[in-house]
Design goal:
Elements lengths: L3 H31 L8 E2 L3 H11 E3 L14 H8 L2 E2 H8 L2 E2 L1 H9 L9 H9 L6 H12 L3 H21 L24
Antiparallel strand pairs: 1-3, 2-4
Keywords: Cleavage on pair of basic residues, Disulfide bond, Secreted, Signal
Subcellular location: Secreted
Family: Belongs to the insulin family.
Length: 193
């Protein structure tokens, strides 16, 4: 068995280990509290639907578009905030004329687990739209990788030939033109400066 010296040695080793573990935990919490950054100052990648929902939620008005700038410059926001990460503060300062302060304060009060524009919430919204479910994606991948590509190409070619023949012969259903009004909404992707 163990003698008295070995027991004391084990006791002191376990005590030192316990104290060092407690110190590490305390230091980790202190450093997390010291390095906590304002939620709006953290840099993130804002792309696609996430970018439009954030701008639509926090911006009340967008800056007027100059007619002098070329239309290619509308991709500037995507390059700045999707390719390179940018903070919510930067996004609101540069791309919003007036900011919805109530929504911004509510966003700051939320905790990180219930973040307003989390990736999970956005992917849930996307998956509810028809044609974007996982099953559809798997079916498309299987179809692309199957051995019956020639049959699919042949069927597609036959449908195209049938369509062009119906155009030449005039056997297609003619639809009447429908004229309607289009409402123009503010889209953040069309911003230019």
């Amino acid at each position: 068995m163990f003698n008295v010296l070995q027991r004391r040695k084990m006791y002191y080793c376990s005590l030192v280990f316990l104290l060092s573990y407690i110190c590490c935990v305390v230091l980790a919490f202190d450093s997390a509290a010291l390095t906590e950054v304002d939620k709006t100052a953290r840099k993130r990648a804002f792309c696609g639907r996430r970018l439009t929902t954030i701008l639509g939620h926090f911006c009340l008005e967008f800056p007027d578009r100059d007619n002098d700038t070329p239309s290619r410059s509308k991709r500037q926001i995507v390059k700045e905030c999707c390719t390179n990460k940018c903070s919510l503060n930067y996004l609101l300062e540069n791309y919003c004329q007036t900011v919805n302060t109530e929504a911004l304060e509510a966003f700051k009060r939320e905790d990180d687990s219930q973040e307003l524009f989390s990736h999970k919430q956005i992917t849930d919204n996307i998956s509810t739209t028809p044609g974007t479910s996982e099953k559809t994606g798997k079916k498309l991948r299987k179809r692309r990788n199957c051995s019956c590509r020639k049959r699919l190409k042949l069927k597609k070619l036959q449908l195209e030939i049938k369509f062009w023949r119906s155009l030449v012969n005039g056997n297609f259903a003619k639809q009447e033109a429908q004229i309607g009004e289009i409402e123009f909404q503010q889209h953040p992707f069309y911003l230019t400066f």
